[in-house]
Structures are given as structure tokens and as C-alpha cells.
Amino acid sequence: MIKLTDVEKVYRTSTIETMALSKVNIVINKGEFVSIMGPSGCGKSTLLNIMGLLDEPSSGKIEIDNTLISGYADKRLAHMRNQKLGFIFQSYHLINDLSVVDNVEIPLLYRKGVSGSERRKKALEALEKVGLNSRTKHYPNQLSGGQRQRVAIARAIVGNPEIILADEPTGNLDSVMGEEIMNIMLQLNKTEGTTIVMVTHDENMANKTERVIRFFDGRQVN
Amino acid sequence: MLKNYIKLAFKVMLRKKYFTFLTLVGISFTIMIITITAAFIDQIVGASDTEPNRGRTLVLKEVFLMKDDRGRPDEVSLPFLQRYITTLRTPERISIYRDGGYVSARNGVPRAHRLKYSDENFWSITNFKFLEGRPFDARQVKNASRVVVISEELKDYYFGEGNAAGKIIELFGIPFRVIGVVKSAPLLSDAGSDAWIPYTADPAPVPPPAEWPTIHGQYKAMLLARSGEDAEKVKAEIDARMRKIVPPNPQFTSVKANALTALQHFAKVRNSDPDPDFAQLFTALFACLFLFLLIPVISLINLNISRISERAAEIGVRKSFGASSSTLAGQFIVENIILTLTGGLIGVILAYLFSDALILMLNAFDPLFQISFGQFILSWRVVAFCIGCCCFFGFLSGVYPAYRMSKMHPVNALKGNNL
Question: Which residues form the ABC transporter domain (chain A) (predicted)?
């Protein structure tokens, strides 16, 4: 599903060069739930951004669904993200000016041929899956952290992406809420077969996934 | 998607109240000035209920005694028009008229009024709405009948409520019988006046000028062409007539009389130019408009750039979920156009209100000549033009910030980093 070959990421300024990722080789199979662990600054989020086509590697290859992603223009990358990927962020990144249901509709706005009513229907279905169908007209600042993250999950799954990339999805939540979010993701992986890659600091959460990939100083250590 | 943009645009406007207030003040003030200017120009050149055929109505108001290619313009004499213009074959209808004025006094307070001297054809070329009575006819013009058609404002001034038809008003101390009351024409319209009388009944004729009295005078002619295209035929016939005239003095080589539409008259850069210059007019108008918009556009660009920085995370989210740079740029431009359109709408309303204040001011400066409030008319053309200006304004001030926004790296945007 996702294949990274010799991926490196170097951040350069005029005076300093920082190696964020060094010779990373990872294969994530279809339907897998993989967690990426490591201390802060070890390159986990950089790796997730590269997998999510939000950032480019300095060298190496990325393949998604056996398609080499190389030299893609902005539009093509955007289309790829829209069709294949869903994102869940630690700080939710919901748009406060939009209602819950409008937030969930966002990925479908950029999908051709989806009418307004169809968009609304799919958004409501996604909210139902995360148990938030009673909060559709609310605004993000009227919700608890756990509810916001559930909205973010609904937004990530509304377009039925094959891959979900979650960057510390439970990082801002207490253990009960974190558990709740983790269960939703496990359920998604199990029932829908969605491939999930999750960055986490939490060993307990990581242990619930099928595979743990560990990082240290930009290198894969297992 | 557009519905979503519109919804978000209003949400953002309400969220940033101070920013929105500042922006709307700038835009609405700019659009107010543009609206008032456009409304004045529209009154001068555009068709209205009273002059629906302006596109095919030619006005001949100057005759040029030419010396080689240069000529000196002067108003036209009645005999000249009667001999060379009223006998033209190509126009559908021809009217001769002149502008004048008179002063009345009520309760010791003097007041100036516009007075038009015209023939009977004037009423069939124009389309005044008669609230009472009827226009004067050919017989009354021929007999120099002392009859007058007045505007509804003048009726109110003289008679207040109730009918005016059949009543008498004095012009230059001579009684004239009111035979009609019309709805007022726009303030700057060529056909507009406070009162109209048959030109033959002129109670205070102006003596002909000492120099070439057969050519120069104070009259104008209104020529209604059969169609917009036929206007050229009318002009050609006039040219042919003019070529046959022997100039009254050997120092002149020819006589030229240009019948032009209101727009063509407006497009003459200098009054002495015999021909309109549309390229120069439109360049000048566009340059003025652009310069006038430039300062608010620059300040809106600056405000927009700071606003985009505040929305960095949203940009990151949208990019993550499949928005391309061009889609995001489009969204921001649409949002900005909605903002400028809102400001523009306020500007048009302000222009309408300010026009009353402007008339009050003008009336205070010249108490003798009072303009009535109903004469500032905002046509749909002007409103459409202002909407166009708002869109242009919105596009101009949105395109650069939108470009910068769309180029934001999604990872930086998600971290909330500035541009």
C-alpha cells in the first residue's frame, strides 16, 4: 500500500544541515494498522508528512498503491491526497467558523461530481460512525476534546480513503477519551479494512496496533 | 462549493469585526464616490425613461467655422437650423430648441428656474410622462401660443397640491397658461427643464450676435435617427449640406456642424474638438478609476495578508484534504469579492443618501437655483457598473494575497507558521 525506499529528509539553512530522516525503508501493507513510535524530534511526524504527500523527501522513493510518486505537480498531489488519504491531527485542526457537519464535508468539497446533498448525506453518515450524529450543527468550540477528535476522524473517513494517517491522535486527550478514539480507529481498521498509520508517544496505544515501527534520531531502529 | 465559500466568507467577516469594519469603510467610501460620479455621467450620456432613444438621438449644438482643419465652435442660429437642418430627409424626426431660464419670486424670495424653448417635435422625440394635461402642438407653436408645460417640482412650487392644468404662471411678467405637468427628467439630462414653452412664444428673445448672425445663435437641434445605424446616414447628409454652404467670410474655408449622440458629445475631450475621441476618453476614465482604487486596493492587500496568516492552519487542513493551490486561491478571491460586494452595496446605499446631502449642499451654495431631490436618479446601469467595480476591486486586492496563501507549504501551514 505504502512503500518508502531509502527515504531521506534533510533540512538545510544557510549555516546548518539537519538530517531528519535517514535511509528509511518501510512497507505498509493494505489493511494494516501500524504505529510509529519514538522520542520527540526523531522524525516521526516528518515521516508521516512524507507518507501523506504533504512534504517531499530530499531523496528516496515513495510508492502508494504501486504508483511511484515522483515529480507530481501540486494539482496531482492534491488529487492523490483527496482520493487516497485521510488525516487526523493531534490538535484536531477543525475550522472553528464551520459547523461540525461542514467541517466533515471538507474533503468532499474537493472531489468532483459530489453534489451538495450527497456531500451532506456522507458527512452525516461519517458522523454517525463516530457517534456524533447529535452534534452536527454545533461548532468545534462547543465540543470537548474527545468530541473534536471524533469530528476529525469523521472528516478523515468521509471520503472513504484507503489510508488514514494519524499524527498523535490521542496526544491531547485524557486516557478515557484517548481510549475511545483508539477504539474508533481499531473498529475502522477492522470493519472497513482501512490502512492506518499512527504516530504516537503512548506505548499502550501502540501495543494495540498490529505493528510498531520505532525511530530514533531519524533512523528506523527495528 | 460556492455556497460553502459564501458561508465561510460571512463567518470570517463576523469573526474579525474590526478588520471587517475597517475594510468595509474603505470599500464603501470608494464605491460611494464612484457611484455618484458614474450616476452623473450616466445622466449625461445614458438613456432614461424621458430619453429612451438616446442611442439614436443626435444633438447638433455647435457649428464650426473652419480654417483648414481647425474650427471655432459656436452655438447655432435658428435660421441656420431652419434652413439646413429641419429640412433633412434622413432623420425620423427633428426638433429645435434652446435652453434658458427665468427668475420668479414668491413671498419676496427669488428663485431661478430652467426654461426650455422648443417645438412640438420635442415631445415625440423624448418620452416625458405627463401627470396632467398634454404637450403643446404644432398649431400652438405656429401661433406662438403662450402655453407652458411644467415639471412636477415647479407645479409644487407654484400650486402645491391639486391640479395645475389651466392655471396661469408668469414668465418675464407675461402670463402663460399651464397645459401640462410632467414627471421630472434626470438632473443632467439634455431634455430636462423646469418649464417648456413654444420657441415662437419667446417672451424675451435674445438679439442675434453681431458676428455672422445667420450662423451663430443660441439654438440646438435634436435629430432622431430611424435606427442606431441610420445615425451615420444623418451625419452624412448633414456633412453634404455643410459642404454646400459658402462661409460668410473668406478667412474660413468651410462650415462644419456635427450632430452627435450624448455619449459622443461627452467623448469630446475639449469643447473645441469637432469629433469625439473614445480612446482618449476611456483611457482617461479608466486611469482615473484605477488611481482612485489603487490606495484602497493596497491597504486591502495588506489587511488580507495579515488575515491569511491567521488562517494558516485552515489552509493546511484544506491542502491536506485535497485542495490544490489554485482552488485555494480561487476560494480566497471569491471570499474577498464577497467582502468587497458587501462594501459596495453599502457604498451604493451611502451614495443614494449622500446624493441628498450633496443636493442640500448645492442648494445652500446657490439659494437662487434649487435642485429637487428626485432628480438624482441611480439607474440599474450605474448599479451594475458599481457591482463590476466591486468585483474588479475584490479581484485586484485578493489575487496577490491569494497567490501567497496558495503557495504556503502545507506542513508549515498546519504548524500555523506565517507566510
Answer: 2-221
Specify if B319 maps to a domain: yes
Domain match, B291 and B176 both? no
Q: CA B380 → CA A197, B29, B55, B377, B387, distances in Å?
A: 59, 20, 17, 10, 10
pLDDT, tens digit, 9 for 90 and up, residues B94-135 = 999 999 999 998 888 888 999 999 999 999 999 999 999 999
Task: Give the up-direction half-sphere exposure of residue A17: CA atoms within 13 A in the CB hemisphere.
Answer: 5
Bridge partners for A61 per DSSP = A5
Does B29 fall in a domain?
Answer: yes
Which one, of B209, B376, B320, B71, lies nearest residue A78 by Cα?
B320
Judge: A155–B319 Cβ closer than 8 Å, yes or no. no
- CA B11 to chain CA centroid, nearest Å: 38
- B208 domain residue, yes or no: yes
Looking at the fold, whether B41 and B167 belong to one and the same domain comes out as: no
Whether residue B93 is found in the same domain as residue B35: no
- Give the domain extent around B407: 2-47+279-415
Best mutation site among A75, A80, A91, A95 for testing chain B: the one with the most B CBs within 10 Å? A95
Cross-chain residue pair A110–B323, CB shorter than 8 Å: yes
- Tell me which residue in B4, B410, B414 faces A109 most closely, judged by beta carbons: B4
**CB spacing of A98 vs B7 below 8 angstroms:** yes
Structural domain count, chain B: 2
Residues in a beta bridge with A62: A4
- Please indicate whether, in this complex, the C-beta atoms of A78 and B414 are within 8 angstroms of each other: no
Structure pTM?
0.73
* A93 close to B (CB below 8 A): yes
From the CA of B312, how many Å to the nearest CA of chain A?
Answer: 11
**A10 vs B: CB within 8 A:** no
Cα angle A22, A23, A25 (rounded to 5 degrees) comes to 130
Mean pLDDT by 10 residues, chain A (222 residues): 92 86 93 93 91 92 90 90 93 90 93 90 93 90 92 93 92 87 91 93 91 91 78
The answer to whether residues B117 and B43 belong to one domain is no
Q: Determine, yes or no, domain membership for B149.
A: yes
Shortest distance between the Cα of B10 and any Cα of chain A, in A, equals 9
Identify the pLDDT of residue B155. 94
Nearest to A110 among B7, B8, B321 (CB): B321
Model ipTM value: 0.93
Same domain, B245 and B102: yes
Q: What superfamily in CATH does domain A2-221 come from?
A: P-loop containing nucleotide triphosphate hydrolases (3.40.50.300)
Question: Do residues B212 and B96 both lie within one domain?
Answer: yes
Q: Does B318 touch chain A (CB under 8 A)?
A: yes
Region label for A118, one of left (φ > 0), alpha (ψ between -120 and 50) or beta (otherwise): alpha
Q: Where are the domains of chain A?
A: 2-221
